[in-house]
């Protein structure tokens, strides 16, 4: 079965750039998307088709996908960006990464 | 604006069957543009895709759940439903319904319900 691997945690200082990776076999040949989930809330789609932002998602969120790795980049990270982030792709069915807890400190 | 709302029992005994419903408002459940899906999240853990259904009734299931799972559509009520049988404690989770968009390998969930907590316990 297809698997996506994310680091369990990433830390970043306010105003700096955070990068969260998502690895999977030939992931670059598939579309990746990303969700943000804050405690007690439903996930929110923040990136789809590798690098597209839904309406209302701030420009500081961006994505890329090449080779075996998709990357979510948050530029000028704010305290409000502290959350869990999940990547997702379609293997032979929908697969989620294990999630990355982003800490802004 | 399209909205989704899950409903169902908060507590189910093993090995009973879980039945959940998602009500769609603000949009058409019969649109050919997207799918309808179920996702769950055990306490303190990550997201797990359960399955999806197209307006035509075509279904797509997580292989690990397929033998216990049925997803159906009731267009007259603008609802889609999940039935998961032979429940165990491992099925305890928050269950989300979602609108699934995309095509040609792009498959993303752009509208989510608020989630409903299900505890499996005797």
What do you see in this structure?
The complex is a heterodimer of chains A (105) and B (122). Chain A is mainly β and 105 residues long. In chain A, 0% of the residues lie in helices and 46% in strands. Chain A has no helices and 9 strands. In chain A, strands 1, 3, 4, 7, 8 and 9 form a 6-stranded mixed β-sheet that branches. Chain B is mostly beta strands and 122 residues long. Chain B has no helices and 11 strands. Chain B has strands at residues 3-7, 11-12, 18-25, 35-41, 48-54, 59-61, 69-74, 79-84, 93-101, 108-112, 116-120. In chain B, the strands form 2 sheets. In chain B, strands 2, 4, 5, 6, 9, 10 and 11 form a 7-stranded mixed β-sheet that branches. In chain B, strands 1-3-8-7 form a 4-stranded antiparallel β-sheet, with no helix packed on it. In chain B, a hairpin with a 4-residue loop joins strand 5 and strand 6 (59-61). Chain B is globular. Chain A binds chain B through residues 1, 30-31, 33, 35, 37, 42-45, 48-49, 54, 86, 88, 90, 93-99, and chain B through 37, 39, 46-49, 52, 60-63, 96, 101-102, 105-110, 112-115.
Helix content of chain A: under 10%
SS-based class of chain B: mainly beta
* Total of DSSP H or I helical runs spanning 4+ residues of chain A: 0
The low-confidence runs of chain A, each spanning 5 or more residues with pLDDT under 50, are none
β-strand percent of chain A reads over 45%
Largest Cβ-defined interface: A-B, 23 and 24 residues
Main sheet summary of chain B: 7 strands, mixed
Radius of gyration of chain B from CA coordinates: 14 Å
> Quick check: average pLDDT of chain B?
96
Strand content of chain B: over 45%
Count of strand segments of chain A = 9
- Could you spell the SSE succession of chain A in H and E letters? EEEEEEEEE
Oligomer: heterodimer
Task: Report the C-alpha radius of gyration of chain A, rounded.
Answer: 13 Å
Shape of chain B: globular
Largest sheet of chain A: 6 strands, mixed
Q: Structural class of chain A, please?
A: mainly beta
